[in-house]
Amino acid sequence: MITQRSYAVEPWTVRETELNLDVLAQSESVFALSNGHVGWRGNLDEGEPHGLPGSYLNGVHEVHPLPYAEAGYGYPESGQTVINVTNGKVLRLLVDDEPFDLRYGKLVGHERTLDLRRGVLERTCEWTSPTGSTVRVRSTRLVSLTQRAVAAVAYEVEPVGNRARVVIQSELVANEQLPGSNGDPRAAMALQSPLEPEEDFASDRRLRLVHRTRRSGLRVAVAADHVVTGPERTTTTSESNPDVARLTVTSVLEPGQRLRVEKLVAHGWSGARSLPAMSDQVDAALAAAAHDGWQGLVDEQQAYLDDFWSRADVEVDGDEEIQQAVRFALFHVLQAGARAEQRAIPAKGLTGSGYDGHAFWDTEMFVLPVLTYTAPGSVAEALRWRYNTLDSARERAAQLGLEGAAFPWRTIAGSEGSAYWPAGTAAFHVNADIANAVVRYVAATGDTDFERDTGVELLVETARLWRSLGHHDHHGTFHIDGVTGPDEYSAVADDNTYTNLMARENLLAAADVVERHPRQAERLGVDDEESAAWRDAAEAMHIPYNRELGVHEQHAGFTRYQRWDFANTRPDQYPLLLNFPYFDLYRKQVVKQADLVLAMYTCDGYFDDEQTARNFAYYEPLTVRDSSLSACCQAVIAAQAGHLRLAYDYAAEAALMDLADLEHNTRDGLHIASLAGTWMALVAGFGGMRRHDDGLSFAPRLPEKIRRLAFTVRFLDRRLRVEVHADKATYALLDGAPLTIRHHGEPLTVSTDEPAVRAVPPAKPRPAPEQPPHRAPSRR
Length: 780
Ligand code: BGC
Hints:
This protein is an alpha+beta fold. Among the domains are: 10-67 and 76-310, Beta-galactosidase, Chain A, domain 5, CATH 2.70.98.40; 389-543, Glycosyltransferase (Alpha/alpha barrel). 30% of the residues lie in helices and 25% in strands. The protein has a 10-stranded antiparallel β-sheet with strand order 1-2-10-11-12-13-20-17-16-15. Strands 9-8-14-19-18 form a 5-stranded antiparallel β-sheet, with no helix packed on it. The chain binds beta-D-glucopyranose. Beta-D-glucopyranose binds next to loops.
């Protein structure tokens, strides 16, 4: 775990000035570079020491049998796990016979900087070998946001004091040895040697390796090209064997002389393309990268990010750590989705192998909301991935005896990968989450082509699922029984409020969309009777409420359960899932993560402010936040209920989840949903942003320590900038036609002519809610 501050607090960079080998795996996640297609963990250039070597290609996975001690009908039989593909980032260095290895000799200076504006990871270090030769090493690394197959490293070495003989070995390495599993079910299963060699090639400065996964049959090709600059008599040789391709550069450097290697790496994979086609594909990607050269890639990266930040930046005055954290968060959320292009956005992005590289509902409910308002093109792509997996979702529904499509709880390629059905298959809400993301994206962009070509079918098939999963009782009330909501400490329960409210919106959205697209509806066989049945179910949806307590129930009967014995639960017994049986968690009032509280954000039209505050006060003392998906949701509702101080504490928890390694598992990869939640806590929490049928509304209010919060969102081809101070909010339309929004309920039309300024009304004072003992967020 990262205990003391590991990174300098700076607005646009994450900088480490000391190398701590104990937290190497964490920093590899923090310094990971990705474009959503290729992911490189922040491993040291020389490959070792490492915490977890990681190079990933989105979608490349291996399949493995899912064994059950007691099998049951409909259990998924085959699981998928992300694999570490051929590593193109390795540059080993030999200085006067000594390998440059930071475990030996003396590290005189070390600095690594993740530059959020330029999208590069820079490293400088000065090292004295055990035999006394000193060198200065500089490297800059990027994973290109503009050329999705490409990553690159510029590596430079220079002797200090005396001349040195240096050898740089630039490599492609397949089947790297991985450290063993640490026993945490949330980490990945490590597959040793997952790649079978098919071709290796080295000639002049070009290298290439092609492999194939054993069972999933995916072909992976990685190629590299180099530009070498050094003194006269610098020599190069290259060679390859099935798992390693290597360019060796040798030179004798006088003080003041430098040896520089620019390495361009291209990646490709396919389940269908032939070996020659894959070799050609990566060679072509490499040719394109070489055409621009190292500097060209750096410039393009900068231009891409300039554009992103002009649409997406969040400014926070008064808390420098949160300022840094929200930019770090936005950067990683962008990296996770930017070029995913019809592939999943995994819970860890491409920063580590945690959760086996699976994507969950995290994508639609945490990541896509941020991208919808900052980089909407990537949202359409992520939802097209779901669309492309519809056949497997339809098959799954049929297998379960249901209609429409049942999307998987966790997956890489589209089939259900959860072997634990109470918190897997039974978490049907993922289907409504996907529908919600479709509706949100179309409302924010007006992309009717997407709605027609992709959205209609997703909405219809998920509505069909709900209609068949639920039933009308003899009073006509519609129930969805035996499902698991977001809170994984309750399972297979009746009428989960979050699920029912989200399913209701799903059913209504499907009924509306088929009216707008009658030809699509006809193609899908939807008739008036079917869409009327969706509306009936939606209107009759049961939402459990305890009148005596005046609160909504997380699911029917929840408030009657015995409370968890919080007083006798020790701090070291959290997370509860690692210390208590699910059997006991399921039958008590204890909440792993925001569930009803999330519903009050996503379906806010259903709850007025008073009800929201009452529900929040009831669920706070039960919520233990054993999932990183919780704090951000609690921040949003705490802010709405006027508990600004508490909201601030939660926002900080979401924001620092990985920079401070709060859950002690950043080593397995970043918590992309919690990073996205940082934006959510600030924009939806303190900015009070919500989306309704008639557009965006804001109800901004700042906690005492934040003096100013400013953010830009993209909405219907416009950029709207919102700036909040303690007493007033300013809305400025940066481009596009006038837009009507709401400020604390009051309609307001903003145009590019002049910003609109409105006063911020004070929050209604309410008693501060309590958290379970030991589970209050850290006070900021
Ligand atoms: C949470 C899920 C989440 C998953 C992946 C679990 O701990 O309970 O809601 O989807 O992690 O982030």
